[in-house]
Write a structure and sequence with these properties.
homodimer; alpha/beta; Rossmann fold; seven-stranded mixed β-sheet; DNA-binding
DNA sequence: TTGTAGGCGTTATCAC
DNA sequence: GTGATAACGCCTACAA
């Protein structure tokens, strides 16, 4: 009357074979005669046996079939970022050869997950804050790890983007079009996510988020004193607010002091800037050019196609996954730098000369 | 020289205690003297021992600390749905007492995950297609399961919404305002996601997705012959397309045949319909009223606040999680029906009488 | 092609 | 408060 769970041994007994043979029949590893395999599978069906217990298998094999993804933010927030979701999407493909699933983990103090979950490998995505702490945990456990969008330092394989060069490229493009008065809308500059102007030079030290700093620096390499306003998040509504602030005085100020172009550090922010321009009766790109970053599809932005740096988010995720697969195969991991591609879109043009604005 | 991994036995030996005692020191379960605990923890630190191997622990305890979430779609698509992400968000809170993580699984034929992952419990979200197959797998494994947004049938605990009644309520509200010519924009009606008109009666059988059918039926209980157009997905751009189709002829047709109100089956679709109206020079809500479903915040829709049925998505996720926790505690699971709340917003008004349109 | 033996690392249960 | 022992269910050598 013991509530004995059905095990592979029971199945083997019913099939009249040894447990090890049954194991082979399930895994398909060794060479088992068709007759035997069928007998085992039939026995399993008869006993309503659902297959080898993954817990026991994983103790034995050392593999759990689980890859952890550490996201810095509250999960709901991370899901709102199309770049992150694209990366997750690519990651699922990249680790497909493992037949593994993705375990969502938050990079949160005292969060049990990273310390105790049965993980074969880990991906850290954009965890600027507790990155080092998380890395320490993972390394101590001896789990292969790869970092995306974060400066992990020596010896940790990472997949990186040259955010500074990419943004400089956008700026150079606008400069070549003739723009000289360019403003910038940045991603949050610190974990607290407050909105504020970021003065060139004096405020640089405030910026604790790598991506924000690098992208801003790249733009200012071309437009040194360009005014920048930090948003509280990568959202259309945030871009709208910033855009209003930057463009609102267009009617009352001389055209020369109103930016002729705005560089936003994400496509969602750029979309908001475009909304702000429309709201103020400015035409894009005739009155103001707008460029973004990411290359995602902004739902609802049609007929505009943003000028943007297309970052290979899905590909980055896929590469990360592939990298982990190789590490688990015993290969030495390497860091990879990915390239962005500029897409012109239809939201930029040469600035109207002041002669055009009587 | 064997590459022997450090185990709890090694730690125990160094600390001069038995392995079982060391285990207690780590888990904090039994009664261990402070001195002993300190000795064990010190020994662990000295050996760089990262704590009990979760694989072995889970074999012993029968718990893996992992809850599976099965999403029907390609993960990238699921992440685009704010309702689903809100549910995931709530779910993480709901299962917090377990200290468990969420394992993302796709409801895909031959996908290994659901069959072999070490899962303590499973949540199926909106898996109309292979729902039964997935359920069978899970039940055979004897894993507690709960279903959200899907008709699981007898004996399976579910968290449901009365989509039909909720939509009828929206329709009744519009009817009370005086609307008689109402059109509907639906979610996809089948897995293939093609756009098409859905004739009342004749096309009903085509609809294989529960939510779509129920919400449509609810609207037609009030507006029996209402024209409906199925979208290819819950996106603003899809709502835009459908909205154009429904409203485009406004200028050339007599006002009487143009809908005075449109019910969209999701807020994103409704946002697109509003865009379409604006594009055509129609004012919302003066020229056309628009209502949605979900109650999410549509980024970029300001200053409109949608008239919509607010569904408690986060709460649903939380309840699902709490339910699983109880099941794992041995309680008998029960199904729960959640209620939506109508939010008026500012996108509906009484239709302009034909007298207003000379 | 199949069977035997041993151990993966932990924790529950008891006795002390 | 601590120690010994016995599973947990499976997989992989290796032997037959």
């Amino acid at each position: 009357m013991s509530a004995h769970r059905t095990t592979i041994a029971d199945v083997a007994r019913l099939a009249g074979v040894a447990a090890s043979t049954a194991s082979l029949a399930f895994s398909g590893k060794g060479t088992v005669s068709d007759a035997t395999r069928t007998r085992v599978l039939d026995a399993a069906a008869a006993l309503d046996y659902a297959g080898p217990d993954p817990r026991a298998a994983s103790l034995r094999t050392g593999r759990s079939g689980i890859v952890g993804v550490v996201l810095e933010e509250h999960l709901g927030v991370a899901f709102l970022d199309p770049v992150k979701t694209a990366m997750l999407d690519g990651l699922t493909e990249g680790i497909a050869p493992l037949g593994a699933g993705l375990l969502l983990l938050r990079d949160h103090e005292g969060e049990a997950g990273l310390e105790t979950a049965p993980l074969d490998a880990v991906v850290l995505i954009g965890c600027s804050g507790r990155l080092q702490a998380s890395l320490a945990t993972v390394r101590r456990r001896g789990i292969p790890v790869i970092v995306i969008d974060g400066d992990a330092g020596e010896g940790i394989p990472q997949i990186t983007l040259d955010n500074r060069a990419a943004t400089r490229q956008i700026a150079e493009y606008l400069h070549a079009l003739g723009h000289r008065d360019v403003a910038i809308v940045t991603l949050p500059f610190q974990a607290e996510r407050t909105r504020r102007f970021l003065e060139a030079g004096t405020d640089d030290a405030l910026i604790t988020i790598d991506i924000t700093r690098e992208r801003l620096a790249g733009a200012r390499e071309v437009f040194p004193g360009a005014p920048a306003i930090a948003s509280a998040g990568s959202f259309i509504d945030e871009g709208l607010l910033a855009g209003r602030t930057l463009l609102a005085d267009a009617a009352t100020r001389p055209a020369a002091t109103r930016p002729t172009a705005i560089i936003a550090q994400s496509d969602l922010l750029a979309a908001g800037v475009i909304r702000a321009a429309e709201e103020l009766g400015l035409r894009v790109p005739d009155d103001v050019s707008v460029a973004g970053f990411d290359g995602i599809t902004v739902d609802g932005l049609a007929p505009f196609e943003l000028a943007t740096m297309v970052q290979p988010a899905t590909e980055i995720g896929r590469m990360a996954g592939a990298s982990l697969v190789r590490m688990l195969d015993g290969e030495t991991p390497t860091s990879i730098s990915m390239n962005c591609v500029f897409r012109m879109g239809n939201t930029t043009s040469a600035p109207r000369s002041s002669a055009d604005c009587p």
